Amino acid sequence: MKNLLELAVDSHGGLDRWNGFTKLRAEVSIAGAIWQVKQQPGLLIDKVFEVRTHKQQLTVSPFPTPDERSVFVPERIVFETLDSVVVETRDNPEASFIGQKFQDPWDKFHVAFFASEALWTYLTLPFLYTYPGFECEEIEPWHENGEDWRRLKVTFPDHIVSHSKTQITHFGPDGLMRRHDYTVDILGGATGANYTTNYRDFQGIKMPSTRRIYAYDDAMLKVPEPLLVSLDFGNLTFS
């Protein structure tokens, strides 16, 4: 049986193809119940995420106003004008979530940090798992939607900011992602089952164009209501 990570990477376009790019521009609208809970509905509709594919850096524009963008690196969030004049910054943004309860509202820095660390992970999978410091282990398969899904348990290195240190990605018989499980540290360990659907080919890289994220219960079964986060992607452009 083929190594699961190798199968996944090959099925998504191959490592040589992926390593030929350093940037990704993604058109996306993000909605779902979490934004009502956090009192920020509609803030991430019709945005452009620009990702450094081999370095944890990401910009969101226009955000939070029509003439600004956010710039994310793990240790800092910067809001700047579209011509790169700094407006506001927050150092160590992850620390601002300490002590928050699930129902507590977020400010624009919270939204920028959460969306940026999440999308950087999502938009680099499964190639991200080949990067230095990631530890991968195939675990027992999972049956869902009439398929047997092979599962990869991944431990993230300390220098990468993501939802949680350990995450599990499910792959279908075709090697493409079906589901991505994690807990969200900055949401008090809330569970997330991230379903990847409607794959499209972008410059030789296969990427899901829709994602739907739900909670999961103690048996790892999807909790169908509410839909926590929805992501709908338009064009993705690599360079």
Describe this structure in words.
The protein is mainly beta. The chain contains 4 helices and 14 strands. It has helices spanning 4-11, 15-19, 33-37, 108-124; strands spanning 23-31, 47-52, 57-61, 68-73, 76-81, 86-91, 135-144, 147-155, 166-171, 177-184, 190-202, 205-216, 222-223, 229-238. Strands 1, 2, 3, 4, 5, 6, 7, 8, 9, 10, 11, 12, 13 and 14 form a 14-stranded antiparallel β-sheet that branches. A hairpin with a 5-residue loop joins β9 (166-171) and β10. It is globular, with a radius of gyration of 17 Å.
Attribute tags:
239 residues, mainly beta
Topology of helices and strands:
Blueprint: H1 4-11, H2 15-19, E1 23-31, H3 33-37, E2 47-52, E3 57-61, E4 68-73, E5 76-81, E6 86-91, H4 108-124, E7 135-144, E8 147-155, E9 166-171, E10 177-184, E11 190-202, E12 205-216, E13 222-223, E14 229-238
Antiparallel strand pairs: 1-2, 1-14, 2-3, 3-4, 4-5, 5-6, 7-8, 8-9, 9-10, 10-11, 11-12, 12-13, 12-14
Q: How would you summarize this macromolecular structure in one to three sentences?
A:
The protein has helices spanning 4-11, 15-19, 33-37, 108-124; strands spanning 23-31, 47-52, 57-61, 68-73, 76-81, 86-91, 135-144, 147-155, 166-171, 177-184, 190-202, 205-216, 222-223, 229-238. It has 239 residues and is mostly beta strands. The relative contact order is 0.18.
